[in-house]
Design a protein that fits this description.
This protein has helices spanning 2-31, 35-52, 54-57, 89-125, 127-141, 145-156, 160-186, 190-197, 202-239, 250-258, 266-293. By secondary structure, the protein is mainly alpha-helical. It has a single domain, classed as MetI-like fold (Orthogonal Bundle). It is elongated and about 75 Å long. The protein starts with a helix and ends in an 8-residue tail after the last helix.
Length: 301
């Protein structure tokens, strides 16, 4: 009995060591892709930190108006100037980081939770489940994403909750199609056949064997979709169907500064640069994660 326990303990230790080794190898491959990947990862970390400590570092309340200080140029009092209502631009950019990341992450989690489940069902059971789920997915994908999200957000009304749901529903098909393809390629493997032979239930096979093997690809998709979510939230706010004012959002700031683009271009350019930096950084980090997590792509550009 003691020998069996010792063997099980040794197997567990070997598995833990292998996991640590794979993690270190993944980190090494990701950060070994070059300076751009490191810079983009650092940009994401900086924006996340800004979102967390926004109340501590923002010099002013982002929603307080001062009509005596409208359209001020950058100065020692207002480092990035003020907008047409006298609100501090720097403070609104810092708080806009929190809104953009919060909406994108929530929408991504909402889409992933539903899309992964439906993709598992469609890929594993096939037949009627696959027919219904995949045809509905194809129907939604036939509509341009920005148009679908815009219409849905308009119907649901403005506000953070509506935007998160609208963006999340628009992202669900991407998770369904990826999970469906991954499960179709994995369910005929030997480890799934062995699980069936020893009498494991379908739910156990789905969530213990198939889902963990899909995590690397899902992590990459989730990371890339974070950038897409930020872009969609900014686009909806720019068009006036996003987060309701006076809440600071990057898209809303670009829209407010558009009328003053000649007189004070910083009002639109600065939040626009933040959007570009964060979206591009998420895309590059997602591409790097794909290379690091997929053994077939390790070492390639």
């Amino acid at each position: 009995m003691e020998d069996k326990d010792l063997k099980l303990l040794n197997i567990e230790n070997v598995q833990k060591d292998n996991k640590k080794k794979r993690f270190r190898q993944t980190v090494s491959v990701f950060f070994g892709r070059g300076l751009i990947a490191k810079i983009c990862f650092s940009i994401i970390v900086v924006f996340i930190v800004l979102a967390i400590i926004a109340p501590l570092i923002a010099p002013y309340d982002p929603n307080i108006q001062s009509l005596q200080e409208t359209k001020r140029k950058p100065s020692s009092e207002h480092l990035l100037g003020t907008d047409h209502l006298g609100r501090d631009v720097l403070s609104r950019i810092i708080y806009g980081t929190r809104v953009s990341l919060y909406a994108s992450v929530l929408a991504g989690l909402f889409a992933a939770s539903i899309g992964i489940f439906l993709g598992l069902l469609a890929g594993y059971y096939g037949k009627i489940a696959s027919l219904v789920i995949m045809r509905l997915t194809d129907a939604q994908l036939s509509i341009p994403g920005i148009v679908f999200t815009l219409v849905l957000a308009s119907v649901m009304g403005g506000g953070l909750k509506s935007i998160v749901i609208a963006i999340g529903i628009g992202m669900i098909p991407t998770y369904i199609r990826m999970m469906n393809g991954l499960v179709l390629s994995l369910k005929e493997n030997d480890f799934v056949t062995a699980a069936r032979l020893i009498g494991q239930t379908n739910s156990l096979i789905l969530f213990k064997h198939l889902l963990p093997n899909c995590f690397p690809s899902l992590i990459v998709l989730f990371t890339i979709n974070l950038g897409a979510g930020i872009m969609l939230e900014a686009a909806l706010s720019f068009l006036g169907v996003g987060i309701n004012p006076p809440t600071a959002t990057w898209g809303g700031m670009v829209s407010d500064g558009y009328a003053l683009l000649i007189a004070n271009p910083l009002l639109s350019i600065l939040p626009g640069i933040c959007i570009i930096l964060l979206v591009v950084s998420f895309n590059i980090v997602g591409d790097g994660l794909r290379d690091a997590l997929d053994p077939r792509l390790r070492g390639k550009l």
